[in-house]
Amino acid sequence: MEIKTIIFWVLLIAFVLPGFIFGYQKLVGQKQKIEQFKRFDYPIWFIRLLGLAEILACACLLFNQTRYYGIGTFMVILLGAIYTHIKINDNKKEIMTPIIVLLHLLVIFFMAFWFKI
Questions:
Q1: What SS3 string covers the chain?
Q2: Structural domains counted in the chain
Q3: Which domain range does residue 86 map to?
Q4: What is the Cβ-side half-sphere exposure of residue 27, based on CA atoms within 13 angstroms?
Q5: How does pLDDT run across 59-87, given as a tens digit for each residue?
Q6: Which among 78, 65, 66 has a CA at the least distance from the CA of 105?
Q7: pLDDT in tens, 39-52
């Protein structure tokens, strides 16, 4: 196995595992997540929809045939998160978190695209 493939899978797993965890927390309606989304002024059903979308996108990322669907879904989710944090005037740390995650996703995208992994 080539080093670029190993690096790709390490980056992918480092993205997918937290994605499954955070998606599950939203899907089951964890109290902390619900309070956070109330602060964002989003309805409760949206939290569960977002959690389901994150879990499905993580599953899509694991397979070559569906990887770009997962990347596209996560890009929309992360751009929405960045917009939300900016809209409510969150502190810089809260704004930077989805930006860093988006950059991680872009690295995965470019590696998958260029190296055909």
A1: CCHHHHHHHHHHHHHHHHHHHHHHHHHCCCHHHHHHHHHHCCCHHHHHHHHHHHHHHHHHHCCCCCHHHHHHHHHHHHHHHHHHHHHCCCCHHHHHHHHHHHHHHHHHHHHHHHHCC
A2: 1
A3: 3-115
A4: 12
A5: 999 999 999 999 999 999 999 999 999 99
A6: 78
A7: 999 999 999 999 99
**Which tokens in the block code for residue 72?**
């596209």
- Using an 8 Å Cβ cutoff, are 81 and 36 in contact? no
Who's near 97: CB < 8 A, 6+ residues apart? none
* Six-digit token string for 80: 């929405």
Distance CA 56, CA 53 (A): 5
